[in-house]
Amino acid sequence: MPEHVFRSPLPDVDVPDTALTPFVFGDESSESRVAMIDGATGGSWTFKELTDAIYSLAGGLAGEGVGPGITVGLMAPNMPEYTIVFHAVAVSGGTVTTINPVYGADEVRFQLNDANATLLIAAAPFADIAAAALEGSGVDEVITIGPVDGHRSIAELMAAPIGQIPVDPKEHIVVLPYSSGTTGLPKGVMLSHYNCVANLAQSNAMLEYEPGEVALAVLPFFHIYGMQVLMNGLLASGVTVVTMPRFDMEQALSLIQEHGVTQFYAVPPIILGLAKSPLVDQFDVSSLRKIFSGAAPLGAELAQEAAARVGCVVVQGYGMTELSPISHATVGTDVTPGSNGVTAPNTECRIVAPDGTSQGPGGEGELWIRGPQVMKGYLNNPEATAATIDSDGWLHTGDVARIDANDHMYIVDRVKELIKFKGFQVPPAEIEALIVTHPAVADVAVVGVPDIEAGELPKAFVVLKPDAEASAEELMSFVAEHVASYKKVRQVEFVESIPKSASGKILRRNLRARTK
Fold this sequence. Notes:
The chain is about 30% helix and about 25% strand.
């Protein structure tokens, strides 16, 4: 039986064979418009000021040896300077690996080593952790965003501007974000200039920006959603971006009111706050035209409640780091409750049942994606790449979905093991590998348990060694000492044994059933 392939109801878009930065900043008519506003300080940059800084810093980085084959770590919260550093590395021909600024030194070191980074650029408040991460890495120096005693800053690197160093857009890796994929420890996701440019062209054809729009960017730029949909996608469409270093409901509402924000990109916990928080009534948010939710499933009822409360449409999309990231999104403000939108232009989908058969409209199965936004693969990990992208180019998402007769896609379940805590990925294997090093622990399994605010909470089922003792609080503190805050274990349950299959695979579904 021939496979059923779903294609986008939208016409294909042209994907130029160009590097990322010239694509994002290619509209000279926007030069005098404000490109970015630092929500924390009020400082602003026009498009021309931003690009002048990018090409000057690129010249300085090139003088430091940054170019093709060199990877630079970037560790900072959302701020206009993030964009300057990111694109300066891209212009110089280097590769950026984006690092979560709340990581501890061990996590930063792991990523620097795995990505083979030779330079680390960090925002001033994170200079100490960044410096501590250098020991045992191939990085010799931390350069700071903002002045810090004992460190050179990016201001000192500014030099004569250079143009884009020639690269092969389809082969050159411009950014190396880290993702756990469907399972396992974090892996470097190799995204080419072409991957990123293609997805910007695809998603911007769906998201439909109007002249003069202003967007609030609170979702972190180190994460693919913030990096591509907010930072690069908004700037490529001439939208003014208001940055926030971390989410705070009162500050977000204040910035919406102050700057007349029209577009607000969010995750389900933020949507929940907009639906429930009494703070909403204290601010004028009438400028909002659309709220877009991603990174985790958003229930139709919550979306409708938030839309009624705020007075604008709430829509959602779907993507993965490995997809640069969007494969599905709501077109403009065409809301279909509970839907993740329609397939992006230039993209094909299959819905594959467990027996390998492709399902037609209404059928459920694993969502497979094929298109120009599919990653090149996982860095130095051909086995994981082959397990995710098959020989025909289909990326297996690990999510169970259905597509209806009107081309709308719905995520109905997850077959992958990742825990989604407030939109962040928490890989169980990483936490398990840490907990089992505790001297009292014989075996462990970590699963996500439902939570209204966070989406899921990491819970550890722990088997103690004979005659060993440890409290739940002790184990939670042990984990907290070594990982970023969103990876903390929130619950611990002691058990006699961990349920496993005949092949030794943890039966997480059995453990999740115990939490209901």
